[in-house]
Structure prediction request, 416 residues.
Amino acid sequence: MQEQDKIIEISQTFPMTVSRRKLLGGMVTTAVAITQSANGQTIQKGLTDEDPTKVTGTLAGEIGTRSPFVKSVKKPSDISSRSPLQDFYGFITPSDLHFERHHGGVPLIDPQKHELIIHGLVEKPLKFSLADLKRFPSVSRIAFLECSGNFRTGKETMTPQEIAGLTSQSEWTGVKLATLFREVGVKPSAKWFLAEGGDSAVMTRSIPVAKGWEDAIIAYGQNGEPVRPEQGFPFRLFLPGWEGNTSVKWLRRIELSDEPFMTREETSKYTEAIKDGKIRMFSFDIDARSIITFPSFPQSIEKGWIEIKGLAWSGRGKVLKVEVSTNAGKTWQVANIQEPVLDKAHVRFRYLWKWNGEETEIMSRVTDETGYTQPTFQQLVEARGSEMGGYHLNPITAWQIKKDGRVLLKPENLRA
Prediction:
């Protein structure tokens, strides 16, 4: 959010509605600036170091704000905006810090005019408005969403946000797609469905019908409020555990078919080269991954006890265990995992470590309930070949601890 330059008030004298108790103490002039954001939201900004117990604070407002001393922001580019993983405490991502990935920008959609059409291999084609969807039994679940291109490396001065910031977690609320499938009467011959978005890119992906019956949601709620425009308002498809591009935003059409549609996004993009000249398509599941978020670049540490912290997740089920190495992978110790451990969800892990001041490398790896363990970058190269694309990369991430306490990424080199 960028603030407008104008300051509405610098010194504010309270209005006549101030309480008698405050009046008995004398009129108070606050030491804050009240500024207005680009969307008209009033924000408090501290101007002095006055004792907050000696001045009256701002009055109750319509929308809560962060402290002006908190600087958590997403890191945007032309097509995406990365979550500041290193700033989070729990496993729920604040809605306004949820990562973004767009192919045609964020559309402005009137929820009163937007409809979802379901047709094709069905007994009864139907249209659904937002109000229609809300009349069906609702469900809520906490699950992560991740872009399949969520990996960057190459230099020591990279933060967790820059390396893996295209993953976030929310509580999603909506109607099960299976409920709508029953409403329209999906024919037994339907094996795939096309999900089409209402953005300028007209994002389309082919999805197996089995996933729709299993756990797909048409989500209109996120973290207790309407889904935000950047996340697909007024409603979106949400496919727990699958690559983010399949969870089509601003959903407007579902067409049932007996075969995949081979759309632009799943042929020219979202396919990946593997060795022996082969191309892998429809690699939907997000593989198990973890990353240490503290300590990480650009943080520094001091000798003594340190709580290593981070996030772990898997698109194939629950996280079974997370291990941490403090000696460059020579030995591994089991970390503590914060409850609850949910299916296809981020978990928070912690490990107490006493640093002796010597240079070392720290890293984490996760094992999910299928028995799959997060690989090293070299193991991924060996399995897929040196010409592998940039999708579904989930390598162990190592942080270098220098003698002076600096923390730097250990970059990976595909051609090494």
